[in-house]
């Protein structure tokens, strides 16, 4: 690997490694197929990049020699470009995956909780409705996770993706439990407002 390639390797974002990871499983895939697979696997525990991001990363990976592509022949109605990981790509990906120092902490950006945090500006019933909508959405996601697990079950090459999906199943179950507890907390807060025991001084809840 040239010094220029090594420099680019160090600058690769996690999305590039995720796309390369999708290519590390047997078979060649189009960008569209990679997007579909990301939507049915990666999004449950990481995120699913946009199709434009996938193609941008595929171009970058080809420049580095980590991926290679071939165009379909005239026998197909629409020409397609299929991508596969190279030996250099597999070696680089294995090195990145084994480097736990780069994993970093999980990032939580919970849109619902941001609105709960601003609940003093909203009607109590609207807050409860938002939590209810979140519960419905989470139940739908949980069903999708379980469908993906069923699809991956019994395929030896997908044993580790199945473990990630199983973790996601537990995470969604925990999210349902947390949301139900949040509804209980909102009810308790509303009762306290209707029957206040003491008046707060209005200071922000910060330490010190």
Provide an overview of this structure.
By secondary structure, the protein is mainly alpha-helical. Helix content is 60%, strand content 5%. The chain has helices at 3-10, 14-23, 31-39, 51-64, 87-98, 111-117, 124-152, 159-194; strands at 67-71, 81-85. A two-stranded antiparallel sheet has the order 1-2. Helix 2 packs across helix 4 (51-64). The longest helix is centred in the last third of the chain and has 36 residues, at 159-194. The N and C termini lie far apart (54 Å). 17% of the residues are buried. The mean pLDDT is 88.
User: Strand order across the biggest sheet?
Assistant: 1-2
Radius of gyration: 23 Å
Query: Could you give the order of the helices and strands?
Result: HHHHEEHHHH
Biggest sheet overview? 2 strands, antiparallel
Structural classification: mainly alpha
| Helical coverage, percent range | 55-70%
Total of helices: 8
Mean pLDDT across every amino acid position: 88
- What is the strand content? under 5%
Residue windows where pLDDT falls under 50 for at least 5 positions: none
Q: Any idea what the shape is?
A: elongated
Number of strands: 2
- Amino- and carboxy-terminal Cα gap: 54 Å
